[in-house]
């Protein structure tokens, strides 16, 4: 970025500092990629905040039931946050898909469920598994549900943090493009749009404050033991500010707030830097480093001061505050009593105007409860519901494992390369394919019957509507990019991968050589993708539907090609 | 922006209700951060000083480097400071200078700004606007620094060699053919005594050597005390050529003043323009009495550099009528006016009758040939100066030197 001035020769210390607070000029501003957190500081602060929150929640849960093993919550929540950070780093769109979440979070949920059985042994696991088979909902005990919710919440929270940190940075197309050509300068020498960088900052601040309030409340409840508050005396003491003081220290609270304030310092710097870049104000290269060091210094000093200062005086002040609030409460109660008396006095004559009979002293007869349903003799056999349930769970788990296996090839290097694994995997894959075909046939049959019953939409229409459902959250521009990426993925699976150095046109040319039957849809889809990805022109639903048609046809052709190849191979063998 | 107030209120209530010690520590931390940040940004900005370090005068065509110096005189660092300094648009393509920096305690930072003195004038460097804030975004403050530095760019001066202006003032330094203005300090030789010669002219040593009476021969000389009357009333100029014509008038005035000063003549200036340095005062007449010397010339050129045209209700001839009472008898009055008008000719006549020499120079009449001027027929030396070539009437050879 031309705004940064006074670049210095980096020393080893500078290199370390620049790793912590990298300059935005190194992150490729102006590129089409979404800007994300750079360096180690932002991810570390987010992880610390989420971890502190998870610790406080785990402590509170343990207080509710000491039998629950909550030691896995904090590491799993931090792992979920790490996954969210990695997820964002690989993401180049602003929408999230629940399927991806499922793939990322299910392994952690399984660890949360089965991890505690490692010290307990296999017998306990088998015993519990038998009880889960008989009653599937026993699988979802309270701790597991809470852990799953925490995993989802931490994933989402981290993503929100990262998304807002990204929103503070210069967005693609926001900077004015300087070109040497006169024609280009006439066409493109303006910023495409204006971005509000204050809203992400405000959201970050609100999230930090709300999280802090929740954390403090949980820690306070943990410190005073919620069982005490459930008694009448405890509640009265709480409301009248008459509780005795409690000495408790929660490192997680201070750590959370220190990390959160540091994140605010960083966010404020990012926003300022973005404004300078957009307004083309040159700024010194050392300003970011100094900004962060000043923030560190101020916070360190204030944390030390806050921890060293005695709370005795504050307790006295607090008692005075409590007395004032109590006095206010007494006055309020007195006023309420007077108002009630006045209202009763005003309404007293109305009693004589009532003409209906006085209510009878006998209580109304209680309606009879409906008879309990007859358990025996049901239409659905007992084994079918657990079977369906566990089958659904199995499908989900297998889907997740498949995605992880296909996308994370690095996992394979850690696994022993035995033939049995492959055989097992191929058998499982065949089983899944069989299941998939059966369920698809079932779905099509149901769809066609349903359509014939409804009488309006044919099966094609129904299929289209159903297949559109996952893309609801995507815009037309993202849909076009998605279709193109899906086409590339399908082609890659069939041995036609796209090299990282290839442009879309080069890739289309290489595909055309190998599979000429993909034309003209391939050219149309490539054209639509380039239009959506690299141009700033409007992309409407008609573009996305056009790209979708091309994509469907290409996919059919690729499948047909794959079938032909398989057939020819089997015939030759 | 981060708003800690709701959280602080919540913490106060929570601390009052639960009375858990760590809530108080947290309160200390947040209150401390909030107050200290606000005070820091306030104090830090107050201790920043800005200064323009530049030469106060520059010649036309110079490239002037202005040092913008920022000094943090306080003991608190300034985390970020945005400087917005206004600059004269005639001297730099982007008429402002902006930069963001941070300042450590007692740190001084300087930046060089290059100004190209392409136009005569009196320019203000500044005022500057400083903007800063705290690290958390609680508060953002601005401070305007009204103290400004001024820069004077001298007008263009074209070298002249011979003016040929008339004068009747004796005892000057300029040779003349009019014998009545002999200068007794300029002895050029001796001649034989004639009846009627003053005895004070007799050169006794030469007479003794030759053997007959010899008298000293003096060179006739005059003093060309000149007052330049520069018309800068925008109403009297063609609005389409206002900028060019007034600039040409000022160039003519500066060139004449420089040339006359080099001849050790007294030069003065009277104009109805506006002195840019006297902002706020609406004096209708700006001028300098006729003096000689290099210092006087520099002051006169500075005044010419600062002059701006202005719209006046009064005609320039009326202004001259008013000031003519204070002019020395016999002085040469050089009118620099847009064009020949009745009022100008009337006042020229009356001034000639009063004993002044009047020269007329027209700078806003490009289509008029000098021969067709009525004033020329009336006996006034008149010139039309519209282009640089028109200065050749005052040059023996067609060469120029821009000072």
Low-confidence stretches of chain B: 397-403
Return residue spans of chain A where pLDDT drops below 50 for at least 5 consecutive residues: 4-8, 23-34, 357-367, 372-378, 454-469
Q: Which structural class fits the helix and strand makeup of chain A?
A: mainly alpha
Mind summarizing the main beta sheet of chain A? 2 strands, parallel
Rounded to the nearest angstrom, the radius of gyration of chain A is: 32 Å
Helix-strand makeup class of chain B: alpha/beta
Strand order in the sheet with the most strands of chain B: 17-15-14-19-20-21
- Oligomer category: heterodimer
The portion of residues forming beta strands of chain B comes to 25-35%
Largest sheet of chain B: 6 strands, mixed
How far apart are the first and last residues' alpha carbons of chain A, in Å? Answer: 60 Å
Can you describe what's shown?
By secondary structure, chain A is mainly alpha-helical. Helices cover 69% and strands 1% of the residues of chain A. Chain A has helices at residues 12-20, 41-64, 73-90, 98-114, 117-120, 122-134, 142-167, 182-188, 198-224, 226-229, 232-239, 251-278, 287-308, 312-347, 384-407, 410-414, 419-454, 459-468, 476-493, 504-514, 521-534, 541-572, and strands at 4-5, 283-284. Chain A has a two-stranded parallel sheet. The model of chain A is unreliable at 4-8, 23-34, 357-367, 372-378 and 454-469 (pLDDT under 50). Chain B starts with a helix and ends in a 19-residue tail after the last strand. Chain B has 8 helices and 21 strands. In chain B, 41% of the residues are buried. Chain B is 26% helix and 32% strand. Chain B has 403 residues and is an alpha/beta fold. Chain B has helices spanning 5-18, 21-46, 204-210, 242-262, 294-306, 316-323, 342-353, 374-377, and strands spanning 48-53, 57-58, 63-72, 78-86, 96-103, 108-116, 121-125, 128-133, 140-145, 149-153, 169-175, 182-192, 214-223, 226-230, 267-271, 274-275, 286-291, 307-308, 332-337, 357-362, 382-384. At the A-B interface, helix 9, helix 12, strand 2, helix 13 and helix 14 of A face helix 1, helix 2, strand 4 and strand 5 of B.
């Amino acid at each position: 970025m031309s705004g940064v001035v006074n670049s210095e020769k980096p020393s080893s210390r500078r290199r370390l500092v620049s790793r912590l607070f990298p300059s935005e000029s190194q992150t490729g501003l102006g590129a089409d990629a979404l800007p994300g957190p750079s360096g180690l500081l932002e991810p570390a602060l987010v992880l610390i905040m989420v971890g502190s929150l998870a610790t406080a929640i785990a402590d509170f849960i343990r207080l509710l039931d000491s039998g629950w093993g909550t030691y896995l919550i904090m590491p799993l929540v931090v792992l979920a946050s790490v996954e969210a950070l990695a997820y964002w780093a690989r993401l180049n769109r602003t929408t999230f898909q629940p399927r991806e979440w499922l793939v990322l979070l299910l392994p952690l949920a399984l660890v949360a469920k089965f991890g505690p059985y490692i010290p307990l042994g296999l017998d306990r696991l088998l015993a519990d598994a038998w009880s889960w088979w008989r009653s599937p909902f026993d699988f979802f005990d309270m701790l597991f549900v809470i852990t799953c919710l925490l995993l989802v919440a931490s994933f989402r929270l981290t993503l929100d943090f990262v998304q807002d940190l990204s929103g503070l940075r210069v967005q693609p197309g926001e900077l004015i493009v300087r070109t040497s050509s006169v024609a280009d300068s006439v066409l493109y020498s303006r910023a495409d749009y204006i971005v509000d960088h204050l809203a992400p900052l405000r959201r970050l601040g609100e999230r930090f404050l709300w999280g802090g309030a929740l954390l403090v409340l949980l820690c306070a409840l943990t410190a005073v033991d919620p069982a005490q508050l459930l008694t009448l005396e405890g509640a009265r003491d709480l409301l009248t500010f008459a509780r005795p003081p409690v000495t408790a220290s929660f490192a997680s609270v201070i750590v959370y707030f220190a990390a959160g304030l540091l994140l605010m310092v960083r966010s404020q710097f990012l926003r300022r830097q973005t404004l300078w870049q957009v307004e083309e104000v040159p700024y010194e290269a050392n300003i970011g480093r100094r900004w962060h060091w000043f923030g560190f210094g101020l916070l360190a000093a204030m944390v030390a001061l806050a921890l060293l200062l005695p709370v005795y005086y504050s307790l006295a002040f607090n008692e005075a505050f409590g007395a004032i609030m109590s006095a206010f409460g007494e006055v309020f109660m007195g006023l309420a009593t007077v108002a009630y008396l006045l209202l009763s006095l005003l309404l007293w004559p109305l009693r004589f105007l009532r003409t209906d009979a006085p209510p009878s002293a006998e209580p109304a007869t209680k309606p009879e409860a409906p008879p309990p349903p007859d358990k025996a003799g049901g239409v659905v056999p007992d084994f079918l519901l657990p079977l369906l349930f566990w089958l659904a769970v199995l499908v989900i788990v297998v889907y997740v494992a498949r995605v992880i296996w296909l996308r994370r090839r690095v996992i394979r290097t850690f696994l022993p390369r035995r033939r049995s694994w492959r055989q097992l995997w191929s058998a499982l894959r065949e089983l899944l394919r069989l299941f998939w075909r059966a369920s698809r046939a079932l779905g099509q049959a149901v769809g066609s019957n349903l359509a014939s019953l409804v009488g309006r939409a044919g099966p094609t229409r129904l299929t289209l509507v159903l297949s559109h459902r996952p893309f609801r959250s995507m815009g037309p521009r993202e849909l076009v990019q998605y279709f193109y990426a899906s086409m590339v993925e399908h082609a890659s699976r069939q041995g036609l991968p796209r090299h990282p150095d290839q442009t879309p046109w080069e890739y289309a040319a290489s595909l055309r050589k190998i599979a000429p039957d993909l034309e003209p849809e391939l050219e149309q889809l490539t054209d639509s993708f380039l239009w959506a990805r690299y141009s700033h022109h409007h992309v409407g639903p008609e573009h996305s539907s056009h790209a979708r048609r091309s994509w469907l046809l290409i996919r059919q052709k690729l499948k047909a090609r794959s079938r032909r190849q398989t057939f020819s191979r089997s015939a030759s063998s | 922006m981060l708003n800690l107030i709701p959280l602080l209120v919540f913490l106060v209530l929570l601390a009052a209700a639960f009375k858990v010690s760590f809530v108080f520590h947290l309160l200390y931390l947040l209150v401390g951060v909030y107050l200290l940040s606000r005070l820091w940004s306030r104090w830090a900005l107050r201790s920043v000083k800005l200064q323009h370090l530049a030469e106060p005068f520059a010649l036309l065509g110079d490239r002037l480097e202005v040092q913008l110096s920022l000094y943090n005189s306080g003991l608190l660092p300034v985390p970020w400071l945005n400087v917005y300094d206004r600059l004269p648009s005639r001297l730099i393509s982007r008429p402002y200078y902006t930069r963001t920096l941070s300042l450590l305690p007692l740190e001084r930072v300087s930046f060089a700004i290059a100004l190209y003195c392409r136009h005569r004038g009196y320019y203000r460097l500044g005022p500057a606007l400083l903007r800063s804030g705290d690290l958390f975004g609680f508060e953002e403050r601005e401070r305007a620094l009204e103290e400004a530095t001024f820069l004077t760019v001298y007008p263009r001066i074209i070298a002249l060699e011979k003016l040929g202006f008339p004068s009747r003032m004796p005892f000057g330094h300029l040779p003349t053919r009019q014998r009545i203005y002999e200068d007794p300090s300029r002895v050029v030789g001796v001649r034989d005594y004639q009846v009627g010669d003053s005895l004070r002219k007799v050169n006794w040593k030469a007479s003794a050597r030759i053997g007959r009476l010899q008298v000293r021969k003096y060179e006739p000389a005059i003093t060309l005390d000149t007052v330049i009357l520069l018309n800068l009333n925008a109403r009297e100029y063609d609005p389409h050529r206002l900028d060019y014509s007034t600039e040409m008038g000022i160039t003519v005035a500066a060139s004449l003043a420089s040339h006359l000063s080099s001849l050790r003549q007294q030069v003065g200036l009277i104009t109805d323009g506006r002195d840019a340095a006297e902002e706020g005062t609406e004096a209708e007449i700006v001028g300098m009495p006729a003096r000689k010397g290099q210092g006087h010339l520099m002051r006169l050129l500075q005044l010419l550099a600062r002059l701006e045209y202005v719209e006046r209700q009064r005609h320039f001839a009326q202004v001259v009528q008013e000031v003519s009472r204070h002019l020395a008898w016999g002085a040469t009055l050089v009118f620099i006016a847009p064009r020949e008008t009745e009022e100008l000719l009337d006042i020229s006549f009356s001034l000639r009758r009063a004993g002044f020499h009047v020269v007329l120079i027209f700078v806003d009449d490009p289509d008029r040939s000098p021969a067709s001027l009525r004033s020329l027929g009336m006996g006034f030396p008149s010139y039309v100066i519209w282009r640089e070539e028109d200065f050749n009437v005052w040059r023996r050879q067609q060469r120029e030197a821009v000072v």
